[in-house]
Amino acid sequence: MTADAQELRHASPTVPLSEVALLFLKLGTIAFGGPAAHIAMLEDEVVRRKKWLPREQFLDLLGATNLIPGPNSTELAIHIGHHVAGWRGLLVAGACFILPAMLIVGALGWGYVTYGTLPQVDWVLYGIKPVIIAIVLQALWGLSRTAIKSRALAGLALAILILMLLGVNELLLLFGAGILWGIKRWLSHPRQDGTTLLPAFSAFPLLGLAKGAIAAGGTAFGLWPLFWFFLKVGSVLYGSGYVLLAFLDAGLVERMGWISRMQLLDAVAIGQITPGPVFTTATFIGYLVGGPVAALVATIGIFLPAFVFVAISGPLIPRIRKSPIAGSVLDGVNVASLGLMAAVTIQLAQAAVTDWLTLALALISAGLLLRFRLNSAWLVLGGALAGWLAWQFR
């Protein structure tokens, strides 16, 4: 099969929409642990188990996801849906990944408004977090064998890991690694490819417009100002939940005065402890300020840019990979993405493995994954059960 035929085959829908919907509904229900854990679960399902994508294409989608603002794991789910089921798959995969978390967070928002407190879920996280570490490590091992094609790339990944742990900005590391590897390729083969790197980043002029608009806003509550605020946040936000916290504090607490800082912290905590995207923090805030309709409006606002950015950037990925220089940029970004995942995993492990039981859960989970390739969903449920039992017999 020729390269053009392979590209056409991968560009055409290959998976029924019903299968896409079921998979992403399941993942949206069990995907605890943040973006690194979500990416690991996605890799386990679509590469190892269902074989919807080869690992090389999964890495390219991951690299492209890291170059656009918004929730990384959600955008990766949208990319995968688009790749395996076309434009309808793009919508179905993203919506089904978001929907379970939105419903769970909305229910918690109702409980919070009604009773004024958060439920006690520490025992769930106690058991699940060490399991997540094992899942992420397995994904890192598999992805690194594909992405790290040379000793030089291995050195780049190690450098990114160290710099991330030292506190260097993650976006700077991603773009820096990509540009560095593109320059390296150009210096080695200056006449092989005359293309510029512009196609790889052609969507980014849109971001400047969005960044210019983020400061605008009013103080009176309404559904349209709520939607517009979260649309702007979803259009420009890179980074972790802590970056999201800074945006929400500046906009909703300081400028608009819609919620208190304590309510904001509770909202971010809800986003962290529930499965699915952390951006469902917007669902909780929407419920606080305006009930169920506002919760839906805020959710649509913060996630809509992710669908738009993936729709713009997705078709560019095959063109980027065809160009030796732009492809090298993507190789650098892919390796940097794995370095960032490794750094996040180390930080998560320090918080997750706190005693002999959590250490045992991490080791047992790793053993089950390596020996029996057990589905990560069962491991997450087992971790939750172990945490509940530990809470019962403490």
Summarize the structure.
The chain is 78% helix and 0% strand. It has 17 helices and no strands.
Describe the structure.
With about 400 residues, the protein is mostly helical. Helices cover about 80% and strands about 0% of the residues. It has one domain (about 10-205, about 310-390). The protein contains 17 helices and no strands. The longest helix has about 45 residues, at about 70-115. The termini are far apart.
List descriptors.
single chain, 394 residues, mainly alpha, globular, disordered N terminus
Strand segment count: 0
Shape: globular
Average pLDDT metric: 80
The proportion of residues forming helix, as a percent range, comes to: over 70%
Count of spatially separate domains: 1
Distance between the termini: 61 Å
Instruction: Outline the low-pLDDT stretches.
Output: 1-11, 194-218
Please state the CA-atom Rg, rounded to the nearest Å.
Answer: 21 Å
Main beta-sheet strand count, sense and barrel state: none
Strand content: under 5%
Helix/strand order, N-terminal first: HHHHHHHHHHHHHHHHH
Count of alpha and pi helical runs: 17
Any chance you could write out the topology, listing elements then pairs?
Layout: H1 3-11, H2 17-30, H3 35-49, H4 55-66, H5 72-115, H6 122-147, H7 151-165, H8 170-188, H9 205-213, H10 223-236, H11 241-255, H12 261-273, H13 281-313, H14 316-322, H15 324-352, H16 356-372, H17 376-392
